[in-house]
Amino acid sequence: MSETKMRYSKQREIIYEVLKNDMSHPSVDSIYMNVKKIIPDISLGTVYRNLNLLANQKKILRLDIGDGVVHFDARITPHYHLICDECGEIKDLFLDESLISVFIDKVQKESDEHIHNIDIVFHGTCQNCLKKKS
Amino acid sequence: MSETKMRYSKQREIIYEVLKNDMSHPSVDSIYMNVKKIIPDISLGTVYRNLNLLANQKKILRLDIGDGVVHFDARITPHYHLICDECGEIKDLFLDESLISVFIDKVQKESDEHIHNIDIVFHGTCQNCLKKKS
DNA sequence: TTACGTGCAAAATCTTTGCCCCTGA
DNA sequence: TCAGGGGCAAAGATTTTGCACGTAA
Question: Which of A7, A30, A71, B112 is most open to solvent, judged by the fewest CB atoms within 10 Å of its CB?
Fold first, then answer.
């Protein structure tokens, strides 16, 4: 994680652009396949390297939803995620931040540890799947 | 995940016992090493198979804290986890369930999806590390 | 007896990395 | 020029699985 100066690279730019235009919280492999459409001979290692780089710079988010694969998200404004247990999609949940901070404060009162941060993954049924069922 | 009848096995019993006596939310490898002290020739595959079996039966919990390794927990009463960012330990957080359900209800009101469940991982500093710092 | 369980090792995934060539500044 | 970046493939790390043998019921 040393602070080396970063130079421009076409690959990194395209990877970032592809991710910004992808609302599906894609896995590395999915990003790789989409970038390949633009730079056919890009390598998977380059995709991993740049995604990790961008994530370490906080330009993108690394998501761990517990499916054994890392997902990435170019939206860095505070938000949360809901996994639809029917279709598997990852939906964004933009919650009022006060809702979260009030919750953390309450938890803090019940805990001897010092809470800095919280990772939340909601599970449920998305709108689409709710419609299908009715 | 077919419903086959499960027969007794010494290995499964020991694995479960070892996990019940381990409060550290161990990884599979750590469980494997501890079980090996009792059954020296047990195989890693057997440990994986039985932990997955027990988790599917809800006798133990599978924890995904985002470190690339699965952890297991034999405590199945509702509780949450805090990762100490200083020492890396996983601490239990026994929270009043109403605290959680009130939070989920509030989130539900802001969401179009139907929320069934919530996975929370808190990050912070544990008591031990707080003491060391002061 | 007869499925289920195990040990072993190979395979399957997913991710990182070394090396040598390429390229931005 | 020259250090960072990329392609390629090998290596790592973690988890699953096929198979032949062992064992509970």
Answer: A7
